[in-house]
Amino acid sequence: MRWHAPADLEEALLLRGVHGEDVTVHAGGTFLGILMNQGLIAPPALLSLGRVAELRGIEVARGELRLGAMATHLAVERHPEVREGWPMLARAFGLVASRRVRAVATVGGVLADADYASDPPAALSALGARAILRGPGGERSVSIEELILGYYTTCIRPDELLVEVRVPPAPERAVYRKFVSRSSEDRPCVTVAAAHGAAGLAVVVGALAERPQRFDDLCAAAAGDLAAAGAREQLAQDYAARVEPIGDARGSAAYRRRVCAVEVRRALEALAA
Ligand SMILES: Cc1cc2nc3c(=O)[nH]c(=O)nc-3n(C[C@H](O)[C@H](O)[C@H](O)COP(=O)(O)OP(=O)(O)OC[C@H]3O[C@@H](n4cnc5c(N)ncnc54)[C@H](O)[C@@H]3O)c2cc1C
Question: What is the pTM of this model?
Answer without folding.
Answer: 0.97
